[in-house]
Amino acid sequence: MRPQLQIALDVGSICEAKRILTKEVLHEVDIVEAGTLLLAAEGARAVKELRKHIGEKKTLVADFKIADGAGVLASMFFDAGADLTTVIAAAGPDSMKKAQEAAGERGKELQIELYGRWDLQLAKEWYKLGLHHIIFHHARDGAHRWNAADVEQVRRLQEIGYQVSVTGGLDRESIRLFKEQPAFAFIAGRALYGSKEPAKEAQALKEAMSGI
Ligand code: 5RP
């Protein structure tokens, strides 16, 4: 399967998110994400409004990075129209299970966001809980330069069985590093919504992905 392009909308309002998501931009991306910052600003209503805006064909992610109250929060986002929502790696197994149950009951999916302290042993335990999608993430607050060690970590996670998405300050150059180790999705926020021509930039990112 070819890698997917996901746009992360970490903007301050639903209005702004819709302004960015023109027909042209929607045409270029596979997955739309209501980003953590947008969800903080507007709540689950952002998911509902984005679902209306993009229709039923595109996948919609609610990236809340759930830590606790996981069943309730996951249900809230799924019922608002999200296909996927995220739990943070720091969440305990009970929270992961509750969010996973909410996903399972609705035929939806959960993604684990890797932040801070985690290791491959933990990743194997989450996999056994039934969570099969992980996001390899470098924090927005850092200034990480993507490198071969990142690609190797992605390989190890894929070896466990995970579908791995990659994110955090991605641009064309960092995407090209994954030539030999294709990710499930490349998630780009600022590179797209910060561009003067987001549709053109999405095309350029897809071109970088095309050799993968
Ligand atoms: C921050 C996120 C972002 O949505 C994601 O990492 C994409 O952001 P950017 O491309 O702007 O770094 O989850 O926690």
Give an account of the 3D structure.
With 212 residues, the chain is α/β, with parallel strands linked by helices. 47% of the residues lie in helices and 20% in strands. The chain has eleven helices and eight strands. It has an eight-stranded parallel barrel, surrounded by six helices. α5 packs parallel to α6. The longest helix has 14 residues. The chain is globular and about 45 Å long. The model has no long low-confidence stretch (mean pLDDT 95). The structure holds ribulose-5-phosphate (5RP). The site of ribulose-5-phosphate has 16 residues, from β8 and α10.
Outline of the structure:
With 212 residues, this protein is an alpha/beta fold. Helices cover 47% and strands 20% of the residues.
Which strand order does the major sheet show?
A: 1-2-3-4-5-6-7-8
Number of helices: 11
Radius of gyration (Å) = 16 Å
Present as ligands are: ribulose-5-phosphate
Mean pLDDT: 95
What's the β-strand tally?
Answer: 8
Helix share, percent: 40-55%
Shape: globular
Main sheet attributes: strand count, strand direction, barrel closure:
8 strands, parallel, barrel
**Spans where pLDDT lies below 50 across 5 or more residues:** none
Oligomer: single chain
Q: H/E series, N to C?
A: EHHEHHEHEHEHEHEHEHH
Strand content: 15-25%
